[in-house]
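Subject: two folds for Thursday's group meeting

Dear M.,

Sorry for the delay on this. The cluster queue was jammed most of the week, so I only got both jobs back this morning. I'm pasting them in the order they finished. Each block is the input sequence followed by the predicted structure tokens. Could you check whether the formatting survives your parser before we put anything on slides? The first protein is the one we discussed after the seminar.
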Amino acid sequence: MIELVKHLKFEDCNTDEEIVDFWNRLGFLDGIENDFKKECVAKAMHTMAKKLINEDKYVDDIFPFSDFSVVIFPIIRRVIMDPYYKEINDFDVDFFEKIINDTTFVEMLKHIAKDHYNKLVELDIYNTIKEVLNNKTMHDITQEDCEKLKEQNIDLEAECVALIAEYYVYRIKERDEREKEEKRTEMA
């Protein structure tokens, strides 16, 4: 995917309109009716593509999905299309990168399901993912992990997209609530 983006000279896009047009031609914006959302998704994907191409840590990344962008771009789209993002026009790529580099899958599951953790533990899919990916981040996943989960009829690519997108939105909400509370405290 990144090779295709490079080949199509995405770096030649300089304006928001050119960026939206580029990602629209690739089909990444299909089904997004709202122009504001289209622009947000396109700009976030563009920024992430630059990171993926220009930063050494991603160039030689051996990733079981064959290409890191296979999960990154769908996560970006899913996050920005979340109803919480109705007024947000940016995607914090650095925060997102921190999540995928530093947070284990089990940490994400526990954080998202704080109030429902006991019910979550009862689910077979949770226990299987926990067993296979216990202390692993996105970059620690191996092809063997993918195969183990595939044997259990778990599509790791889809689960990664869903879990990371949900976790990102959850953490952004948490950050926003903390900032509001800090402002209230300052005003008091």
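Second protein, same layout:
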Amino acid sequence: MANMLVMIGSAGAGTYARYRQLSKLTGLNVDLIWLDRQLSVKLSDTRTISQRGTVCELSSYDLIIYWPASYQALRHRIGSWFPTTATEEYLSRSWRVVEDAIFSGLDHLMLNSYRAACDAANKGIVYLSALANDISMPTTIITNRPGRSLTALSTKQVIKTVTDTVDVNDDLQLYTSQYPTDYKCQILDAPYIIQQYIKAICEYRAFYFDGRTIAVRVPRGDDLVDVRLTPGSTLKCEIVDNTTISRMASRLATLFHLGMFSADFLEDVAGKIYFIDLNPHGTWHWLQRSVRDRLDHAYIEMVLKKLGLPRRKNDGPGKSHRSRHI
């Protein structure tokens, strides 16, 4: 019987759905820890995490999958989206220190090592590393004071948050979108990313599963809309063979030492491919059902292969297993 621990820094439909799928497999015990909820960590010769009365000894697992805590989840812990006092900022930074301690020395048990996952979630590190390795990208600027010089990028620009989608308040939400170059965005002096607008014919999201890449092609209209922000929405798309996307995904896996991730690409009218973003692990619950099923299957196959377990066609609800939703 193999033992697996799923540790989630911020809740999401995609991550939880995958936990539910894994918990249905025979021959696999699955535990789930929420890192954005109350927990206690014992640091000794046997490192343990306690949550809601259940104790998990980390060295007892054969595989650990970790989704990095988002900036938004860190703020949720202290009841504020942005730090308004020195105390709140200290609390948020303290939780990062705790995560550093939890995962120190556990790389051999993790699908993506803790440090690799954190680096892959850092857009600054990702963009600099991609450029240093000749991976094509749009011109990119990180700033909190856009000036007239930025209008040289193009007639349009794409604005991104440095971390992830953030709810500033009940009325304002920051996420990837496109604006005219004279748009000014200054939210509490926060830095954000401006990228050159690429007139794209389609978008690709590449899902990498420990050596296997599945490329999903998404048709692209004039407006850039993040369908994941609309509850219940799904995006029409198709799985395609694209050697350029697969090759770039393999380079990213090697560059960031990742066993699993998703990456975003654009293809322009001339057929040039641009790397846009990297997400350790990534989600696909917002894609159409037929594509989700293929990705679910690839994900489960990867986990079973890592654990040395055979794929059983009769795995499903009602089969013998243990899972703890902590």
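Two things I noticed about the second structure. Helices lie at 13-22, 71-77, 86-103, 114-120, 123-132, 243-256, 289-307. The chain has a mean pLDDT of 76.

Cheers,
T.
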